[in-house]
Amino acid sequence: MAIAAAISLSLPLQTRRFSVASAAPLRSTSSLHFDSLRSNLSLKNPNFRVSATSMSIGTADKISAASFLDRRESGILHFVKYHGLGNDFILVDNRDSSEPRVTPEQAVKLCDRNFGIGADGVIFAMPGINGTDYTMRIFNSDGSEPEMCGNGVRCFARFIAELENLHGKQSFTVHTGAGLIVPEIQDDGKVKVDMGEPILKASDVPTKLPANKDQAVVKSDLDVDGVTWSVTCVSMGNPHCVTFGTKGSQNLTVDELNLAAIGPKFEHHEMFPARTNTEFVEVFSRSHLKMRVWERGAGATLACGTGACAVVVAAVLEGRAARSCTVDLPGGPLEIEWREDDNHIYMTGPAEVVFYGSVPL
Question: Which InterPro entries does the entry link to (predicted)?
Answer without folding.
Answer: DAP_epimerase_AS, DAP_epimerase_DapF
